[in-house]
Amino acid sequence: MKKAIIGLVAGMLIGSAGMAAAATTQTVQAVFAKFTLSVDGQKQTLKNDPLVYKGTTYLPVREVAEMTGYGLEYDNTKKSIDLKSKGTATAKIPENWISLDELKNLNVTITGNLTDTMVLKTESKSLEIPLPVQKKGLYTAKTESGNIELNFSESGTQINLDSLLSAGLIQ
């Protein structure tokens, strides 16, 4: 009789543990989605497709951290993810963008109050560019000569070379 009670108690414990585990797991339906992801205006390709669940897109955090220049530390015991900046290294400016300092090397004079207006001048052309209030990220300025794309980042302000060519400011 003693063995029967022990067996019954053991069976109840095992059964209740399975029920407790089943109660904490939840099945959801999510959809893999194809998105174009850009970092500072530069298209990036994800190795793993994002998930969309109830209108919210979930990105692979390790890949996004790498794309944005962050290191990632994952602690399984604490169930925590820590993104850490990789230092103050100067960000590489993509080939089709030019910094204001590099633009000066092309004999372009930069004037204006640089708060709400920037004026770019060469010997033959002057281009007034209206600036946004918040200088962060990508911005397209509408000018008389066409749209000029600007990128405001921690490493400084860059201007898209193609937009300067289209506007006739540089050749």
From TrEMBL:
Residues 1-22 form the signal peptide. Pfam families: Cu_amine_oxidN1. Residues 39-89 form the Copper amine oxidase-like N-terminal domain. Keywords: Signal. This is Copper amine oxidase-like N-terminal domain-containing protein. It comes from Paenibacillus donghaensis. The lineage of its organism: Bacteria, Bacillati, Bacillota, Bacilli, Bacillales.
